[in-house]
Design goal:
Protein name: Aspartate--tRNA(Asp/Asn) ligase
Distance between the termini: 41 Å
GO cellular component, one term: mitochondrion
Structural class: alpha+beta
Keywords: Aminoacyl-tRNA synthetase, ATP-binding, Ligase, Nucleotide-binding, Protein biosynthesis
Number of strands: 29
GO molecular function: aspartate-tRNA ligase activity; ATP binding
Pfam family, one: tRNA-synt_2
CATH class of the largest domain: Alpha Beta
Number of helices: 23
Helix content: 25-40%
């Protein structure tokens, strides 16, 4: 920047740290400026300028001296003056930062890394001069000329010890802040080990290799590439706010391990699926009523928008019609859903589709993939056990809802749900519910504790916010009994004498479940002190949705009992398939469904095929009774993935949309691309998608997918690190032809009010008239 002070005829050429001052005055004015500039942080150098008065140049004494010199002398002087003038030129942006950490990555004197920062190092690096880079994590000063330090790469536990033996490098090293990025050049040596007895186990390694922790780098040159700000907080006990996620990734060992673990699992999955073609499908799609809410992306074309895909479902089906018989990809999906611990608005899934295949083929292929991952990544620190059960257990949707109260059964929870209508006395039934002709269900959970302790636990549970919800059930709260052999009717007096006997007979005659061992079966069929019995009423209707009231209460009690130490934790991962889902579900007013007028929507998506020929017939007579050829992969109460055999006939697909779901013809036209592909001789095909975030969370033993995602969204769908989403600017409103609509008022379709500070646009005629007026 150049500033001209005309009043004093000074010229100051300023470049942040240096000012060149040229003045025609020698006295007080010159000394004033030359003293004022340094106080403002400038380096000042000045010289006399040729004096100009009344437009004439006045010759100075030095000019007369110059005329008397020889040409040779004059040339030397001019060359010297050019050098001085060059020095007085304003510094460039580069010169300003020269010598600071900003430019060290670009300087020629910083050699590129030549040392493999790995756990094992080839022996030929011994006594070799190498360069390495990393973060400075530790400094141990022994003297002015001897200092040890540690450097690591940021990912992984590998640390290389540095050794400085001279004052210059030691001084440099000690001046650097911990966690700064540095470059070090020196010679690799093996660490010195005193010849004394040690209980430490010697490291075993193959011939020709050394472990990194056995080596040290004797420093010859060290450069700081970037300094770690002293105001940044970090440490093992430090709590990182969401806006400091980058620091948490760097310093939180568990999070960093999870992300590296995720990368390794992804690489293993790709290797296991190497017979599939990994094909990327578009992210910018269009809005189609598949079942979930979508994210729209406006365009500059008025009235047009993209939609982010809920899944690559339609594209991968079109790939089947295109002759790609085995497809996979790690797909990014987007759903505008209510968020919870296992949900994110954007997530990753391992997406698979196979032509000439049915659900059996797909399920077998997925089981093979899961076993391969568990075999490679089973480790004690993650409490992960290899899977040996072949094939995975299978259970129908109706069985899952009847005996587990959930379409995501957790086989770790003891005590299945049983229907006990014939056992509950009329008086007890009226106390539990006001429903006419209800269904009563009960479950028995074996807890480790004296009956009095169990009663106290139950009382405390129902007084918590979680437990209070179940007491406010509109169909009636649960009935609770604790088996106690010291009390009348062994604590089952609420059932009456006859009811208590029938209840014990019911449980004693239960068949052994395939997923229960001998001990689990004995616990399920016998009564012991402290057993907890829960009874709940529900409407006499077919199962629908994802859970029942008793199923949710059973899960909540299981988690609370684990926390209180009343149950032993089961560390195994119990995988199973849930099959035979209803093809259609009554609309709940929350999910958008397919926007048809039938009063129900597809349980999963409208592309799922009916299970059998009988289910095809039910599409005309009673669609709600039709079963879909759908299958969910579940582990320990977590839905990891879902898939189905697809409708591969265009006529069948159109019939489902038009006659069964009764979709608007314009909405059916939104699927014209898919119908066109299906009509081109599309082969039978089936597929599945595994939630990759959930899979990693399960394998790592964490409750939330946020702990295995680098940059997750909050429960409000916000990324606090980058402050997204952000408010739309006025320019963007105009660029994308958007307008605000207030749905609460009658004037809901009025455009957004204009900003009072915004100048109204003038038409070309108004501008012309103004110009004419001014000229007049």
């Amino acid at each position: 920047m150049t500033i001209i002070l005309r009043a004093a005829r000074h010229m100051i050429v300023r470049n942040t740290r240096t000012a060149v001052y040229v003045s025609p005055w020698r006295g007080a004015a010159a000394s004033l400026v030359s003293s004022w500039l340094p106080s403002r942080g400038f380096h000042v150098s000045y010289r006399l300028a040729k004096e100009e008065r009344w437009g004439r140049e006045v010759e100075k004494p030095e000019d007369k001296e110059r005329r008397g010199r020889s040409l040779e002398e004059q040339g030397v002087v001019e060359e010297q003056e050019e050098v001085e003038a060059e020095a007085l030129k304003p510094q460039s942006f580069w010169e300003e930062f020269k010598g600071t950490s900003f430019v060290n990555l670009y300087l020629d004197n910083v050699p590129p890394p030549t040392f493999p920062f790995e756990k094992r190092i080839p022996s030929h690096f011994m006594a070799l001069r190498v360069t390495t880079v990393g973060f400075l994590t530790k400094i141990v000063r022994l003297s002015d000329a001897l200092t040890f330090a540690h450097i690591n790469r940021g990912t992984g536990p590998e640390v290389l010890q540095l050794l400085s033996k001279n004052k210059e490098t030691t001084k440099k090293l000690q001046s650097m802040r911990l966690n700064s990025a540095i470059s070090v050049t020196g010679v690799i040596h093996k660490k010195y080990k005193p010849k004394v007895a040690s209980k430490r186990k010697e490291l075993e390694f193959e011939e020709g290799w050394f472990y990194l922790e056995e080596l040290e780098l004797e420093i010859e040159e060290i450069t700081c590439l970037n300094t770690f700000d002293k105001d940044i907080g970090y440490g093992p006990e430090h709590v990182y706010r969401p806006e400091n996620r980058h620091l948490q990734i760097r310093f939180d060992t568990n999070l960093q391990k999870a992300l590296l673990y995720r990368s390794d699992v992804a690489a293993c999955a790709r290797e296991e699926l190497k017979d599939f073609y990994e094909i990327e499908t578009p992210i910018l799609f269009k809005s189609t009523p598949e079942g979930a809410r979508e994210f729209l992306v406006p365009t500059r074309r008025p009235g047009f928008a993209y939609a982010l895909p809920q899944s690559p479902q339609q594209y991968k089906q079109m790939l089947m019609a295109s002759g790609i018989h085995k497809y996979m990809q790690f797909a990014k999906c987007f759903r505008d859903e209510d968020l919870r611990a296992d949900r994110q608005p954007e997530f990753t899934q391992i997406d698979l589709e196979m032509a000439w295949a049915d659900g059996e083929v797909v399920m077998a292929r997925v089981e093979k993939l899961i076993r391969a991952l568990y075999k490679k990544f089973a480790a004690p620190d993650t409490q992960l056990q290899p899977l040996f059960q072949t094939p995975f257990h299978r259970i129908t949707y109706d069985e899952a809802m009847s005996h587990h109260g959930s379409d995501k059964p957790d086989f770790r929870i003891p005590g299945l749900i049983q229907q006990v209508d014939h056992i509950v006395p009329d008086q007890l039934g009226k106390m539990l519910t006001h429903i006419e002709y209800p269904i009563f269900e009960a479950c028995k959970i074996r807890l480790n504790g004296h009956p009095e302790r169990i009663k106290k636990f139950v009382s405390m549970f129902f007084s918590t916010p979680v437990g209070e919800v179940f007491g406010k059930n509109i169909d009636g709260g649960p009935g609770v009994a604790v088996f106690d052999s010291s009390r009348p009717l062994e604590g089952l007096q609420t059932f009456g004498f006859e009811g208590a006997e029938k209840l014990k007979a019911l449980y004693s005659n239960l068949p052994q479940q395939a997923f229960h061992g001998k001990e689990a079966h004995e616990n399920a069929t016998t009564f012991d002190d402290g057993d907890l019995i829960i009874v709940q009423a529900r409407k006499n209707l077919p199962h629908s949705g994802g859970s029942t009231a008793l199923g949710r209460l059973r899960i909540a009690l299981y988690r609370a009992a684990l926390a209180e130490g009343l149950l032993e934790p089961d560390l195994y991962h119990h995988y199973l398939w849930v099959t035979n889902f209803p093809m259609f579900t009554l609309e709940n007013g929350v999910d958008p469904g397919q926007e048809g007028t039938a009063g129900f929507s597809a349980t999963h998506h409208p592309f799922t095929a009916p299970k059998t020929a009988e289910d095809v017939d039910l599409l005309r007579t009673d669609p709600l009774m039709a079963k879909a050829d759908h299958y969910d992969l579940v582990v320990n109460g977590v839905e990891l993935g879902g898939g189905s055999r697809r409708i591969h006939s265009a006529k069948m697909q159109r019939f489902v949309m038009q006659e069964v779901l009764k979709m608007n013809p314009r909405r059916i036209e939104d699927f014209s691309h898919l119908l066109k592909a299906l009509s081109a001789g599309c082969p039978p095909h089936a597929g599945l998608a595994i939630g990759f975030d959930r899979l990693i969370a399960v394998m790592r033993g964490v409750d939330s997918v946020k702990d295995v995602i680098a940059f997750p969204k909050s429960s409000k769908g916000e990324d606090m690190l980058v402050k997204s989403p952000r408010r739309i600017s006025r320019k963007e409103w105009k660029r994308y032809h958007l307008q605000k609509i207030d749905l609460r008022t009658e004037n809901s379709h009025k455009p957004m009010e204009k900003d009072a500070t915004e100048k109204p646009k003038e038409s070309k005629w108004t501008r012309f008239w103004n110009i004419v007026t001014i000229r007049k």
